[in-house]
């Protein structure tokens, strides 16, 4: 039986055992064919007992995975910026209108205080003839004298006289607003100017001058 050298190589990928032999005078191992078969069987049993190796994971890949998981767990979502709500223009306009109204009222008060002779077209309390409208109509009917010239000419109509009731109730600034005939106009003015004092008009509790108009009718029988 010749002298042989055995080289055993284990391949973990397929868990196989490769045996190589060659003639060598420097290797002092003598095995017969039976010993070789036994040795191979022992190696096969040993290999079968070795558990398969778990596949290795590259360190860089594992580290990147852990960092990604950490980032996904600790990532804070962005909060959108919300601008503060400004006051609406409507509120500003309302405030401006209120201030303007107050200013106008103050200016009106000052104007009235500076001009006590102001003549109102309308007052809070209008002037009144003593006894009211019925007494006024009675006064006119009893005091008007139909001009003779107008009677001869058959002239008739309605003369409107406007005047101012002063703060003391007297009649001032009377003039013909609507004319019919010079003689009739003159008679209407005479009757109006001859009226007794009226109750003066009032504005904010004070006597004021107020315009007033009265119609004087001239009608022939």
UniProtKB/TrEMBL annotation:
One matching Pfam family: TonB_C
Main location: membrane
Family that this chain belongs to: Belongs to the TonB family.
GO molecular function: energy transducer activity
Membrane topology: Single-pass membrane protein
Superkingdom of the source species: Bacteria
Domain called TonB C-terminal: residue spans: 131-221
Protein's recorded name: Energy transducer TonB
Region spans: Disordered: 50-73
One GO cellular component, as annotated: plasma membrane protein complex
Organism: Bacteroides intestinalis
Protein keywords: Cell inner membrane, Cell membrane, Membrane, Protein transport, Transmembrane, Transmembrane helix, Transport
């Amino acid at each position: 039986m010749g002298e042989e050298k055995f080289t055993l190589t284990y391949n973990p990928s397929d868990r196989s055992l490769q045996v190589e032999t060659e003639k060598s005078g420097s290797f002092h191992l003598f095995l017969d064919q039976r010993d070789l078969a036994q040795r191979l069987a022992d190696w096969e049993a040993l290999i079968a007992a070795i558990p398969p190796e778990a596949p290795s994971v590259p360190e860089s890949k594992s580290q990147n995975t852990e960092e990604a998981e950490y980032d996904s767990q600790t990532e804070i979502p962005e909060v959108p910026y919300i601008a503060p709500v400004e006051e609406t223009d409507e509120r500003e306009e309302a405030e401006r209108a209120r201030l303007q109204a107050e200013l106008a009222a103050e200016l009106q008060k000052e104007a009235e205080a500076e001009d006590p002779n102001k003549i109102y077209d309308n007052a809070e309390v209008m002037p009144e003839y003593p006894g009211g409208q019925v007494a006024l109509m009675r006064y006119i009917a009893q005091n008007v004298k139909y001009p003779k010239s107008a009677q001869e000419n058959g002239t008739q109509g309605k003369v409107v006289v406007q005047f101012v009731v002063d703060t003391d109730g007297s009649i001032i600034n009377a003039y013909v607003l609507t004319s019919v005939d010079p003689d009739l106009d003159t008679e209407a003015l005479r009757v109006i100017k001859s009226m007794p004092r009226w109750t003066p008009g009032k504005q904010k509790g004070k006597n004021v001058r107020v315009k007033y108009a009265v119609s004087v009718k001239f009608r022939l029988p």
